Amino acid sequence: MDLLVQFRWIVVIFVVLPLSFLYYFSIYVGDVRSECKSYKQRQKEHDENVKKVVKRLKDRNASKDGLVCTARKPWVAVGMRNVDYKRARHFEVDLSPFRNILNIDTERMIAKVEPLVNMGQISRVTVPMNVSLAVVAELDDLTVGGLINGYGIEGSSHIYGLFSDTVVSYEVVLADGQVVRATKDNEYSDLFYAIPWSQGTLGLLVSAEIKLIPIKEYMKLTYKPVVGNLKEIAQAYIDSFSPKDGDQDNREKVPDFVETMVYTPTEAVCMTGRYASKEEAKKKGNVINNVGWWFKTWFYQHAQTALKKGEFVEYIPTREYYHRHTRCLYWEGKLILPFGDQWWFRFFFGWAMPPKVSLLKATQGEYIRNYYHENHVIQDMLVPLYKVGDALEWVNREMEVYPLWLCPHRLYRLPLKTMVYPEPGFELHKRQGDTKYAQMYTDVGVYYAPGPILRGEVFDGIEAVRKLESWLIENHGFQPQYAVSELTEKNFWRMFDGSLYENCRKKYRAIGTFMSVYYKSKKGKKTEKEVQDAEQETAEVETPEVDEPED
């Protein structure tokens, strides 16, 4: 198995990369064809496709057919968790036609899109208009539906929150075939707040209206090296975007974009960005870096140069900045192709990068997939900002994974308690980054092979993930569900609040039609009997069992 993984680059070079290029090209052609149609025509096709979904749901025989799932193949999802729930008997609904941008309304500053629209597709349309989604996830392949039903973050989330916080309305097909529009202030407001993190288990999302913001042509990016221990790095990261006087809503004091990459236990680079006009960027003496060119140094390695040459500033075209981590998949590309960062590979073959994640999954097989789960870490830890230093020390002690990615986000205090929620009474402490209406959290991205694995030592990946999950529960943190999870059902509902979710499951008749969110996220194969038993148990229990973590 070690040899198969070590020489997996052969499969990637000769199979995955060519297929990825053909796949990306075919999707691009489809997107261009869609963009040639008028918004009116796209809306008409959308309405017809919604009717097909409604008919498909109404044709389902609840006593004979399995629970409803999308017809998308398990390996197509970008997330790393096993999509084993589809191995049980299920009733497929095809959502593949829902990949169109339905409208860009620059007067209302709203984009109406279907769930399979990805970040690369929408930024290609909006950025030339000098508007953008408020939160644009870095990887091109991430879809609107995945970012809403699951989890989505970007360097602007310290201002706008998670991706789902920027949504204005959802168009959802419920279990009985009813099509509803949910907003925060209409009769379906409970559904509006319950959809994020629900993994599509309350209904089928068929479109969403999302907030747009005005932007400029370039991003003025400042790279600031930090040397010190992990607590000092954490404080420098906090100071890079959180005014010490608590004036977090003052846009003059808070940058438009923030991220930090921690390269070793003593070295990091903090990056802050502000939108800049073309005229400013092209002034004499300013450096413009087109990071999107295929032959360019991978972004995380380019940022690392600040540790040697000191603080510097450059201007990056806005769309290229948005997708700066796409070509190298953050730093996972180094594991997939050990020589992928070399100048000769970038120059001659960089245009074919990145390999499509779904094709990597499709060609790895179950044994290699399990090998990665045990010897490799892809996890995000969402923790209160004031605990980021503790989180960094925990990762260093238990996993030794570097680089680490830090990205802040607001966690709003909402009218209803959702699956993820801020700490009770956070506003009383007036901590750096917090406001009266939102607590500042941070994503600690842990993506790479752990230090013990790289040194040839023993590492128990499953036990490490369990420890990570326990630490998150104890510290009011959250684990995005795209990742491999070892949570038991009891601990799942200790981490997440299930009251609103379960109420909506009952109210909108999702029980018996859609799988529960825990069961959908649960690791391992699901038999038909397990699915039925789990749904029956859910139907009998009013709310999930919740153990409050110790104070």
Task: Summarize the helices and strands and which ones pair or pack.
Elements: H1 2-6, H2 8-36, H3 39-58, E1 67-70, E2 90-93, E3 101-105, E4 110-113, H4 119-126, E5 131-133, H5 144-149, H6 157-160, E6 167-173, E7 179-182, H7 189-194, E8 204-214, E9 218-227, H8 230-239, E10 257-264, E11 267-276, H9 278-281, H10 299-304, H11 306-309, E12 312-317, H12 318-322, H13 332-336, H14 343-349, H15 357-362, H16 365-375, E13 377-384, H17 388-398, E14 404-412, H18 426-429, E15 438-448, H19 451-454, H20 461-474, H21 489-495, H22 499-507, H23 517-521, H24 528-540
Parallel strand pairs: 1-2
Antiparallel strand pairs: 3-4, 4-8, 5-8, 6-7, 6-8, 9-11, 9-12, 10-11, 10-14, 13-15, 14-15
Subcellular location: Membrane
Pfam families: FAD_binding_4
Main location: membrane
Largest sheet: 7 strands, antiparallel
Number of helices: 24
Class of secondary structure makeup:
alpha+beta
- Using the CA coordinates, give the radius of gyration: 23 Å
Shape: globular
For the terminal residues, how far apart are their CA atoms? 44 Å
**Could you give the count of β-strands?**
15
Keywords: Membrane, Oxidoreductase, Transmembrane, Transmembrane helix
Region (Disordered): 522-551
Main location: membrane
GO cellular component, one term: membrane
